[in-house]
Amino acid sequence: MTFATVFSLNLLLVVSCISYSAQFNKSGNVALLKDKGGLVAPGFSCLLVNCSLPTTTCLLDSSCREAVHCNSECQGKTNEEACNLLCELTYGYNSSKYRHLLQCMSDHGCLPVSPPDGICVANDSSTIKNLTSLSQIKGKWWILRGLNCGQRGWPAAFDYFPCQRDEFVPLGTHNDVWVDHIAYCGGRNNTCSTPILYTVANVSITKPGVMNHVYTDPPLTPQIEEWRVLSWPHPDWMLYIYCGATPTGPYAGGSVVTRADSGKDVGVIPVYVEIEFRSVAKQFGFNYDEMCVSNVTSCSD
Predict the structure, then answer these.
(1) Which runs of E-coded beta strand occur in the chain?
(2) Per-residue pLDDT reduced to its tens digit, 131-150
(3) Does 54 map to a domain?
(4) Is 239 helix (H, G, I), strand (E, B) or coil?
(5) Same domain for 137 and 249?
(6) Cα–Cα distance between 98 and 66 in angstroms, integer?
(7) What is the pTM of this model?
(8) 47 and 100 assigned to the same domain
């Protein structure tokens, strides 16, 4: 996925080698986190010692409290990381108190590091060599196929959010600074269950075919992704993979994208382009035909 804000928000619920339980409700009542032997969980102790003020401030603020409650509802779900992402963008995006609490927890080691979500299947030496300027890909690109789709080892399904797109836009008059305006919605089976959500990344080309994304608005900093373009046989059709990380762990995925206004249906990919994508995917160890398909024909923003 092109986005990303990926993180593990175990707010008030820090998982260790034993089972902990926590209760948090919308009124702001917090139960002490205890293990089965009645001992206070290390994560809660970490909050008390290092982040007591931002925790209290958050619980007294309705927006921050709503975001934390949403995070608590994600615990244990197969797509926990994606669920947490939607909580952040839906409820916590404009809450400075929420972001302050998360960053405090991250800075002091109160958040666990999650196992990798997905596999980074390519490095910088694997990319095409004819993409050297972001002006070559200016415009809006829609995601039609994805690699991180909720399958085993890729549980978050970041690439299966409905209506995903990226828009590469220059800032200033010399086209020397670029941003990626990223949009998508929460939902499944190509149906949105939330309004369109937005995030932003500063983008630069560090090597031919390699796009570095540094997110300007993540809940935890830093969040950095490397996009590696594996195939670009047509100006408006591209296959790339991304490898990223936040303070709570690495993640990866990949996408087939188009910027053709008439090409928002996966069924209109030119035959020779799809043959090329299928061949390249095989070289990097994944099956093109098993990538999840997104229908974005009715999406607009």
Answers:
(1) 20-21, 34-35, 139-146, 165-171, 177-184, 187-188, 191-192, 197-207, 210-215, 224-234, 237-246, 249-258, 292-293
(2) 999 999 999 999 999 999 99
(3) yes
(4) strand
(5) yes
(6) 10
(7) 0.82
(8) yes
